[in-house]
Amino acid sequence: MVRYVGVGNMVRLIAAVGFEPYLIGLAGYVEEDFRRWNAFEKVPRVASHSRDGVIELMPTSDGEFYGFKYVNGHPRNTRTGLQTVTAFGVLSDVETGYPCLLSEMTITTALRTAATSAVAAKYLAREDAEVMAIIGLGSQSEFQALAFKAVNGIRRLRVFDIDPTATGKFKANLAPHGFEIEVTASAGAAVLGADIITTVTADKQRATVLSDNMVGAGVHINAVGGDCPGKTELQRAILLRADVFVELTEQTRIEGEIQQMAPDFPVTELWRVIVGEATGRRSPDQITIFDSVGFATEDFSALRYLRDLVEGTDYYEEIDLLTEPKDPRNLFGLLNLAALQPRKVPQAC
User: Fold this and answer.
1) What is the pLDDT of residues 12-57, one digit of tens each?
2) DSSP assigned state of 344
3) Would you tell me the crossing angle of helices 106-124 and 141-152 to the nearest 10 degrees?
4) Which of 88, 260, 316, 323 to pair with 188, CA 20 to 30 A apart?
5) DSSP 128
6) For residue 342, is pLDDT > 80?
7) What is the distance in angstroms between the CA of the first residue and the CA of the last residue of the chain?
8) Burial class of residue 128 in the structure, from the number of CB atoms within 10 Å of its CB (0-12 exposed, 13-18 middle, 19+ buried)
9) Of 110, 102, 107, which is closest to residue 13 (Cα–Cα)?
10) Domains in the chain and their CATH numbers?
11) C-alpha separations of 305 from 45, 58, 66, 71 in Å
12) In angstroms, what CA-CA distances link 178 with 58, 148, 153, 175, 222?
C-alpha cells in the first residue's frame, strides 16, 4: 500500500495548518535542500512541447529518496474552464525502489513556487523591503503574496492585471489576510515605490511585462512567469543592469529570462548564495533578479515536507498501487488466484 494525498486531503491539511505556517515550514525544507545541493542528482526537466503548451517530467534524487513530478503548462486551458497547470508527484525509497508517497502537486506546485521565491528574496532583496508589486494576478499570485508575507514580512502590495476579473479575484481571496492592496492602472504604476517586483504572467510569448525604464536602483525582481522556451517577461536591457540568480543554470538558459542572453552571460546559482560561496546583495542600489523557472529539488522538498506533515494523521489514504504476492518471484500467481474467485458476469445491455 502507498500513501496518497489527493486534492481533498491537501485542502484539509492546509486548512488545519494554516497558509502562512505551511509556507514557512515549506520554505524551511526548500532552503535546507538548497544547502545540500551537491547531494542531488540534477538534470534539466524532460519537456514535451506542443503548440498549446508543455508536458514535463522533473526528476531528482539525494541518494536516499527519489522524487519526480509530472506537470503541464497550457495557458489556453482557462478558455475552456481547465487549469493552466496540473501536476502530481511521487517520492520513492532508493533502497527498494518502492514508492512511499503519491500526491497531487497542482496546489503543492503553487505553494513551493511561492516558497522558493520568498527564500530567494530573503537573500537577494534589501533588508528594509516593505512594498511588493505583482504584475499578473492569475493562479500563482495569491500564493506569492502569502509567501512573501509569511517569510519576508511583506504586507503592502501594488498590483496590476489586464483582466479586471483577475484583480477582483485576487482582492477577494486575500481580504482576510491582512494586506494593504493598491490596484493600479498599469504595470508602470504598480512598480512605482516597490522594493520587490514579482512578474507572474501566463501567456506563452516573448513579452515585455517589465521594461528597463520601470526598474530603479535597489529593486529585487522575482521573475516567475518566464518558465519555458519562447516565454519571457523582462526587457533584455534590465538583465544587463542586474545581477541574475538562477536555480540550475543549464535549465534556466533554456527556459528562463536568460534565454535572451548569450550562452556565456554570467549568472549565479542561488544555492551558492545560501551556503555562503557567493555574494547575493552587495549594496542598497544593486538590482537583483531571481530568474525562477522551478527545479526538481523544490518539488522534492515539497514532497518530503508533505510526507513528514501527514505522518500520524488522517490526511492521506492508502492505495493499492503495489503488487504484493506471497512469493515475490511468483507474480503470475496473483492472476491465477484472481481467476479462481467467482465473479458475477455483467448482463448485456
Assistant:
1) 999 999 999 999 999 999 999 999 999 999 999 999 988 888 899 9
2) P
3) 40
4) 260
5) T
6) no
7) 36
8) exposed
9) 107
10) 2-107+298-338 (3.30.1780.10), 120-294 (3.40.50.720)
11) 21, 17, 14, 19
12) 35, 13, 11, 7, 22
Where in the sequence numbering do the catalytic residues fall?
227
Residue 58: strand pairing partners = 69
Query: Could you tell me if 43 and 68 are in contact, meaning their C-beta atoms sit under 8 angstroms apart?
Result: no
Taking CA atoms, 45 is separated from 142, 173, 323, 324, in Å, by 26, 32, 29, 32
Closest by CA to 112, choosing from 155, 62, 69, is: 69
Q: Give the span between the Cα atoms of 197 and 235, in whole angstroms.
A: 14
Over the stretch 106-124, which tens digit does the pLDDT of each residue have?
A: 999 999 999 999 999 999 9
Grid coordinates in use for 60? 531528482
What is the residue whose three cell numbers read 536602483?
217
Rounded to whole angstroms, the Cα distance separating 276 from 271 reads: 9
Q: Whole-model pTM?
A: 0.93
Residue 344: the pLDDT is 56
Scanning the structure block, which residue is given the C-alpha cell 500564493? Answer: 143
Q: What is the DSSP string of 40-60?
A: S---PPEEEE-SS-EEEEEEE
Given strand 2-5, what is the order of strands in its sheet? 46-49, 54-61, 65-73, 87-93, 99-104, 2-5, 317-319
Amino acid occupying residue 260: Q
